[in-house]
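Hello again, I could really use a second opinion on something today. For a while now I've been wondering how a particular protein folds. Please have a think about how the structure follows from the sequence. Here's the protein in full, and shout if anything looks odd to you:

***
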Amino acid sequence: MIFAYLLSFVLWGPAAPQYIAAGALAGGLPDADVLLFPLTRWFPSLHHRGAVHTVLGVTIIAAAGSVLVPYLPYFPPASTWVYFVAMEIGGLSHLALDGFTNYAVRPLLPFSGRSVRLNADVAVSLVTMSLTGLTLAVLILERGTVPFGVWQETAWILVGVYGGYLLLRGVARWRAGILRRRFGYTELLPSTSPWRWLLLEETDAPDRYHIRFRRLSLGSGMTGPDRSLDIAKLPPSHGPVASPQEALERTYLAAMAKSEWLAESYHFGEAAEKGNVYEVWWYMISQAAGRRAYGVRGEIDRVTGAIQLRSGFLRLPSLAPM
């Protein structure tokens, strides 16, 4: 909403606050699809980042909003066409920012399932969330309490701050992409810092899973060893477990079934012998911070093959280079 607000401020100018507000409103509306989750059982396309996160969905919202917003407080009667354009641009800016992060969107549904993802920023960042909270507080405190010129200056300063941040992230993504190609990786994931990235390659076939990754710090080069995992996806079975590799293979499907978040993310596994069991860790490498990450941890009995797993935030084994 803040980005759509500032973009609308640049496009319409301070003399048209109704269009700025309409653009900001439309910038936040696509995420209202989380309220539709009770209907997704019957209409799967209404899931989060589904039908509402498309050009068609945004256009329908803008068309309806252009007629309805004049009935809301603080939205005076004005050109329906301009209201539509303002809300269309605001909604499309939401799709653009989602694609700017590490979450993919499919803006051309239902005509094309092609996903768009730049991977220049993380979707949940304490830095940007704090900046957004501060921005909202400033704008609320200024409303009706400062001269009009002060509000304009504040808006332009915020345009510079947010625009500069997007530019910094974009340039860092371009530089990290050069190094990704140089070292032979296929994917690039951002972190909360513009200077720290994750280079990886993944192959997820019906019967095998392969992943290789390494961390990159712009200005310092590659950090930590190159990590790789290649396993067969074996169904859980009874009988002796001969090695850590087999422990990972026999717990893979059970771990993915335990956590949908884990299954849909880039994940890595480790196993270590501990008495009569093998301890196993399956975790999301893109969300790891320090020695902790979200995932599935458990044990597989070395003699019987019995598996016990639990999901949550894990303390990773000491060999995990986070």
In short: Residues 148-182 form the longest helix (35 residues).
